[in-house]
Amino acid sequence: MSFIHEYTKELIATGILGILLIFLRIVATKLVRRYAKTNQTLEHRTNLVIKYLHLLINILVIIALIIIWGVQTKDLILALSSITTVVGVALFAQWSILSNITAGVILFFSFPFKIGDVIKIHDKDFPFMAEIEDIGAFHVFLKTSDGESIIYPNNLLLQKGISILEKQFNDKEYVD
Predict the structure, then answer these.
(1) Cβ(32)–Cβ(49) below 8 Å
(2) Is 63 helix (H, G, I), strand (E, B) or coil?
């Protein structure tokens, strides 16, 4: 019982933070779904962005809990430096994965093209035209007029020049 009396403020703040966490997750989910509905975005792309936003909200809540419970600065710095070292090595090794996820979120909100669009990628080494079949978290699935399937990383879509073309359905030729 003395634990409850000693940490009443922290327990109340933790409870309020828990309610706030639920509220923020619901609001973020509804806002993203409303945005996706107005832009006619696919459900699985919407779910990926919601998952990323929930992860961000959870990280912020953990930071708030650390502040509420008054974790000692020296303990916090030791833990954060250890975690940062491990995560830094992992992210350095997997930098392209992180950049592809970030590019996927940017493509979701900027919405420059959609599934079914025919695009021309202006790459000096490997230029090509293809139809977008699917947009995933890491890459885009493309199909050329020859029937070739290409999996193209999201981060390269943001780095290369891209033209959106019109498709002539009767002969599967693409025109500018």
Answers:
(1) yes
(2) helix
Contacts of 164 (CB under 8 A, 6+ apart): 112, 113, 117, 118, 119
* CA-based nearest residue to 76, from 65, 91, 87: 65
Taking the C-alpha atoms of residue 163 and residue 120, their distance in angstroms, rounded to an integer, is: 5
The pLDDT tens digits of the residues spanning 127-159 come to 889 999 988 777 889 999 899 999 988 888 888
Query: Could you report the per-residue pLDDT of 91-114, keeping only the tens digit for each?
Result: 665 566 777 777 777 877 776 777
Closest CA to 136 of 165, 112, 103: 103
CB-CB neighbours of 86 under 10 Å: 10
> Quick one: DSSP state of residue 142?
E
Q: Which of 104, 160, 164 is nearest to 129 (CA)?
A: 164
